[in-house]
Amino acid sequence: MARHEFSRETRREALKRSRNRCEASGLRYGLDEGQRCNCSLSVGVIFDHDVPDQLGGNNSLENCRAICITCNKFKTRGDIRQIRKSDRQRDKASGVIKAAGKLRSPSFPKSSKAERRQSKPPLPARPLYRQQEEQP
Ligand SMILES: [Zn+2]
């Protein structure tokens, strides 16, 4: 569900403009370019953001399309991909996503505990492991 919804007035105007026929058209609704769906909206109508809310679309009548349920399903799948893509781009720009291999663990100041551990003699290699390694 979009965070911002069209007002009742906008919905009423959009439905009036549609003449109760689906206003969806073009490739992103699974139709040919310039082809309008035109199916009856009497079984169900979705008021769709032409430019999705998350991509900066507003709730004006111009950005509102009265579309059928089938077209909405098709469009929603496309929107999700688009929105995710724009999220990724934003994250990359703000440094949320770092390129692989550039992650480094932060360097901690040496504590007295770490120094004590270093003074201990190193542990002998595990015999079982060495044995396996030397086998032909
Ligand atoms: Zn339709």
Layout of helices and strands, plus pairs?
Layout: H1 8-18, E1 46-49, E2 64-67, H2 69-94, H3 112-119, H4 127-134
Antiparallel strand pairs: 1-2
Bound molecules: zinc ion.
Tell me what you see in this structure.
There is one protein chain. By secondary structure, this protein is mostly helical. The protein has a domain of 87 residues. The chain is 39% helix and 6% strand. It is elongated. The N and C termini lie far apart (64 Å). It binds zinc ion.
Q: State the helix count.
A: 4
SSE topology string: HEEHHH
Rg calc: 29 Å
Proportion of β residues? Answer: 5-15%
Please state the structural category: mainly alpha
Brief digest:
The protein contains 4 helices and 2 strands. The chain is mainly alpha-helical and 136 residues long.
Identify the notable features of this structure and list them briefly.
136 residues, binds zinc ion, mainly alpha, 4 helices, elongated, single chain
